[in-house]
Amino acid sequence: MARKNAPSRRYHPTNEPLWVRVTLILIGVAFMGLILVLPLVAVFTEALRQGIPGFAEALQTADAQSAIRLTLLVAAISVPLNVVFGIAASWAIAKFEFKGKAFLITLIDLPFSVSPVISGLVYVLLFGSGSLLGPFLKSYNIEILFAVPGIVLATIFVTFPFVARELIPLMQDQGSGDEEAAISLGASGWQTFFRVTLPNIKWGLLYGVLLCNARAMGEFGAVAVVSGKIRGQTTTMPLQVEMFYNEYQGTAAFALASLLALLALVTLVLKTALEWRFGDELAATGRGH
After folding, report:
1. How many CB atoms lie within 10 A of CB 168?
2. Residue-wise over 217-241: b if at least 16 C-beta within 10 A, else e?
3. Model pLDDT for residues 61-109, shown as the tens digit of each residue
4. Which pLDDT belongs to residue 17?
5. Is the pTM of this model over 0.85?
6. CB neighbours (10 Å) of residue 55?
7. Rounded mean pLDDT, 218-239
C-alpha cells in the first residue's frame, strides 16, 4: 500500500524566510536610530561643541544654576506627594469596593488625555487675578501663579497618574490575602502596611517613582503657562533651554538639554537593570516583562 504523503508543515508567523526577518529588523533599527539615537547624538554633540570647558561654563551661569535648582526642588516636592497619593489611591481601588470606583480610575487617567497646556490654563482660571481664589490668597501674601507653588501644582497634576497606574494592577493581582493573614495574626494596620504591603509592591513603586521623576523634571507645557518664565526665579530646565535657544545661546541650551537627555537615559538604564536583576521577583508580582 502506497504511503500517504506527509501533511505539509503548518504555517507559523515565525517561519518567515530569513531575508524577511532581517529586513524587518533592519527597518526597526533604522527607525529607532533616526527617531531616537540620532537626536540624542545631535544634542550631546552640540553641547560639547566648545569642549568640556565650554560645557561646564554654560552650566555654571546664574540662569542655568537657578533652573537646575528649581527643577530639583519641584521634583523633590511633587514626586513624594505623588507617591503618597499613588499608594493611597491604589490601596483604595485594589482592596475595597465602593461607589464611584470607576470614576476615580477615570480621574487618575485624566492627565494622560488632557493637554498639559490646558491643565496650566485651569490653574490660571483658579488662581488668576480675575478668579475668586486669586485675590483672596493674595490678600494673605500667598502667591500661586508665577511662583514656585504654581509650578509644583502643575507638575503634580501631570505626573500623579504614574505611581498609581503602576501600583493599581499590581495590587489587584496580589489580592488582599496577605494583609488578611497578617491582621488575623494580630498585626496592626501600620504593621501590615510596612511589613506586608510595602515589600510586595516595592518594585512596582520604584518603577512609578522613576517614571514620575523623569516626567516631573522634563515637564514643559503646564509649567510654561503657570510660571510666567521669570528669569532666575520661575524657569525650570526645559523652560530655560527654550530661552537660551531663542537668545542664540546654543551651547548653553544644548548643555541643559543634554542633562535632561542624560536623565532619560539614566531612567532607562535603571529600569532595564531592575528588570534584569529582579526579573523573577517582578514576574512573581505580575509586573515583569
Report:
1. 21
2. bbbbebbbbbbebeeeebbbbbbbb
3. 899 999 999 999 999 999 999 999 999 999 888 888 888 888 888 889 8
4. 79
5. no
6. 19
7. 90
| Residues in CB range of 198: below 8 A, 6 or more apart | 205
| Per-residue cell: 151 | 509650578
HSE at residue 239, side-chain half, CA atoms within 13 A, is 27
The answer to whether the beta carbons of residues 162 and 83 sit under 8 Å apart is no
